[in-house]
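hiii, so i know i said id send this last week but things got crazy w the move. better late than never?? heres the sequnce for the chain we talked about at the cafe, plus the structure i predicted for it. fair warning i was half asleep when i ran it
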Amino acid sequence: MQNAAIAYYFKYYLGRENNVQLFNVIGTVALIVALPLSKPLAKRFGNKNVFIGSSLISGVFFMLIYIAGVNDLTTIYIFNILGKMAYAPAVPLLWTMIADSADYGEWTTGRRATGLYFSAAVFAQKAGWGIGAAIAGWILAVSGFVANAVQNNTAITGIKLLVSVIPGILYMSCALFMIFYKIDSKTTALMKQDLDARRAKQQ
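okay and structure toks below
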């Protein structure tokens, strides 16, 4: 939703259509710069805790974009950079935890389905992109957005919400789902030990 609406945000709210690409590039660089923090943070606090923290903190920063005024371009960039950097550690951890879930499935059932876990995750991602874009279009339509025209206050509010508050809430909601994730570092170590022993016996 955020990606679908960011161009409208810069064009119709900020009046700086040419800055969209720079905004996206800087956000991507911030994400890449913070990715290496994932491993040391996970080692110290655990995958689950880091993922929860990243989701909550990044969600707050993205929501704060809403309060930025038309002339607060620097503030918008700063909140976006901080949001991307806060979320960065969760990106590689997602795939690590999916792999751990596959190990957990094998550990508890004796059947390994790694391909199914990862294909389901990729499908969910792509479905999310499609659904997010569709919802963004629906919110714009409901708010009275008219392409290539001066937008009313309701449409501007809808655009601002799509870039800030709504994605911020969705980022934070990831932390709620993690309550059900029970695989901690002790469980991971025990799984690895047991699975290695089982596989050694099968050889």
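btw The domain at 2-202 is CATH 1.20.1250.20 (Growth Hormone; Chain: A;). thought thatd interest u
miss u guys!!
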